[in-house]
Fold this protein.
Amino acid sequence: SGSERLADKPSIYFAFALMSYLFTVSVNLTLIITISLDKTLHEPIYIFLCSLCFNEICGASSFYPKLLHDLLTNSYVITYTACLGQMFVTYSYIFSEFTSLTVMAYDRYIAICKPLQYRMLMTAQKVAQLLMLTWCFSVFETAVGTVLTARLPLCGRHIPKIFCTNWEVVKLSCSDSTVNNIYAFMLIFSHLSQTALIMVSYVHLIRAAIRSQADRRKFMQTCLPHLITLLVFTTSLMFDTMYSRYSGGSTMKALQNALAAQFLVVPPLVNPIIYGLNLQQIRSRMVHRFTHRTGTFRKN
């Protein structure tokens, strides 16, 4: 009976992971479709939110399919090419997440601190440029890092994580990885600078929000969830990065894997809820569509 219980565990984990993945994709797609079909929601903040939701789907898809395959086959093996591919999608998601949150903070800064200039500053062309910057810059950063890693010869095969990360692969190399280390610290500095820029903008946002009740309401609806998500994402990512680089032992591996999975599992699931459902216009449109369809079904 003990062996049967152990054999049942992968099936339970598989079912839980599959439900989590499907729910994550569905809530993000629901938000994207709701915004796309409603012309009243074709505003910069909602367009940036669509981009963020698409990125969340990419992030979840870099983690769940391989995990589901491993649980289904009970085989935790991956080819080197597939490992590099998973790394590419994962880090594109990470870098795009930081850049997307920075762009959304910039949008909220103009909307609250410079409301009279918002329409003039956030034009359709400006929105398109910011979206192009978000995706192209993130993909370029990832491509450079992937190429630098792929050139290294490997002397090991074991990765102590449930998914591939750049540093774990670099640690398996037989040659000098100084260039990879320098580039990694450049990326860390770059995205920590983005976080600092967001925090500075929030100082101005808080000052502006104090002025009127409308600004306070706008801040609570759109900015506070944004700030909480940013801090959770940055903290978990930095802990995982530092622990992977400077921990020489095998202690706390369960905690390390849990924190590593956190930024691939929690933000893609939580972001569409705290951003989408917390925004009154999106919430009212979703309720309207649901009640309208329910009423139509009842009439039929």
In short: Residues 1-7 have pLDDT under 50 and may be disordered.
